[in-house]
Amino acid sequence: MSDEESDQLDRVEEVSTEGEETAGMASAEVSSDGNSSAAEAGDITAELREQVSELQDKLARSWADLENYRRRVQKDQDEARRYESLRLIHDLLPGLDSLGRAIATAEQTGDQAALLEGIRMVLQQFRDILRGHSAEPIEPKGQPFDPNLHEALTQVPSADHEPMTVLEVVEVGYRMHDRVVRPARVIVTCAPPEE
């Protein structure tokens, strides 16, 4: 519960308490003076009705404020979800621009070495962007296979490695903090066939 919701609930409780206290005081006044005239009782009743009406109005306004607050929070959350990728997209655009320039330069000059160097630079730029967004590569080559981090595509017999060791990474996996974004797709070893 937020501070604003808590404040609104406190106001509703105060309004309810005020109404109970007023009713209790009026009841005490009438019972302590048994000779009260009917006119005084009518005045007290009218005053109590007015106070009850005011309290009901305060209560209705408090509930309306609470509902408006809930709608505002929901709208803010929806908008945050809608645009949550905005920062990532903004960060990816320079890499796409660089890739386009590398291709245009290679087409004009015909220099494939320059194209290859440009693509390497763009690849590094994309890796830096991912790191900037807390996405780290899963680099399992030579490590034991872990089904939580890796997806085995095939097994290859090998006498040089322990069974279920990652021999080759086909697609790099990524994790963000403690969650796997994409498991690394790997080729793992198995025991060689016995002859």
The major sheet is characterized as:
3 strands, antiparallel
User: How many individual helices?
Assistant: 4
Total number of strands: 6
Q: What structural class should be given to the helix and strand makeup?
A: alpha+beta
Total count of domains: 3
Strand numbers in spatial order across the main sheet: 1-4-5
Q: Low-confidence parts lasting 5 or more residues at pLDDT below 50?
A: none
Helix content: 55-70%
Helix/strand order, N-terminal first: HHHHEEEEEE
β-sheet strand percentage: 15-25%
Oligomeric state: single chain
* Gyration radius from CA atoms, angstroms: 36 Å
Q: Average pLDDT, to the nearest integer?
A: 84
Shape: elongated
Distance between the termini: 69 Å
How do the helices and strands line up, and which of them pair or pack?
Layout: H1 3-32, H2 38-82, H3 86-109, H4 112-132, E1 135-138, E2 150-157, E3 166-171, E4 173-176, E5 179-182, E6 184-190
Parallel strand pairs: 2-6
Antiparallel strand pairs: 1-4, 3-6, 4-5
Helix pairs in contact: 1-2, 3-4
Task: Using brief descriptors, characterize the structure shown.
4 helices, alpha+beta, 6 strands, 195 residues, elongated, Nucleotide Exchange Factor Grpe, Chain A, domain 2, 3 domains, three-stranded antiparallel sheet, single chain, three-stranded mixed sheet
